[in-house]
Amino acid sequence: MELTQEYLARLDAVQPKELPGDLDLFDEATATRGIRLNKAAYSLKDEHQRDLFAKDEEAWMAQFGLTDEEQDLVRGRDWIGLWRSGMSIYVMVKLSGVTDTPLPEIGKQMKESGGGANG
User: Fold this and answer.
1) What is the Rg, in whole angstroms, of the alpha carbon atoms belonging to the chain?
2) Which of 18, 26, 41, 59 has the greatest number of C-beta atoms within 10 Å?
3) 10 Å Cβ neighbour count for 39?
4) Each residue's pLDDT tens digit, 20-31
5) 18 vs 3, 6, 23, 25, 68, CA distance in Å?
6) pTM of the model
7) Phi/psi at 102 (nearest 5 deg)?
8) Burial of residue 87 (number of CB atoms within 10 Å: 0-12, 13-18, 19+)
9) Nearest Cα residue to 53 out of 102, 96, 105
10) Cβ atoms of residues 92 and 106 within 8 Å
């Protein structure tokens, strides 16, 4: 389906303009960058994937083709780094569950970085 000029004009009208340069905006480009991370974290809804993560985190990451940088973010539990690399907060919760990371700890890291879901 081809996008019409009318649709593109309406889309442009609702896009945020003149945002601060240091804002950690989770937009389409960010989500696209994070596709591997999001697939990996979403897989943790399945017991088999949670078991694999617990037994062999490296093998779990390898099956999703995570880059070296993405693997380092997961290993380091770098929540703001994962966010900036495109991991959705909704699947981040799944990862936090298998790493026994309380949600307030994720929020604290994001707040201290000056970025994240709430800026």
Assistant:
1) 16
2) 41
3) 14
4) 666 666 667 777
5) 25, 23, 11, 12, 33
6) 0.73
7) -65, 145
8) buried
9) 96
10) yes
Q: In the predicted model, what is the mean pLDDT of the chain? A: 86
Phi, psi at 69, each rounded to 5°: -65, -45
Q: How far from the centroid of its chain's Cα atoms is residue 115's Cα?
A: 13
Between residues 104 and 73, the one the model is more confident about: 73
The tokens 């945002």 sit on which residue?
19
Q: Return d(Cα 113, Cα 109) in angstroms, integer.
A: 6
User: Looking at per-residue confidence, does 118 or 14 come out higher?
Assistant: 14
The closest of 104, 107, 63, 49 to 116, measured between CA atoms, is 107
Contact 79, 52 (CB under 8 A): no
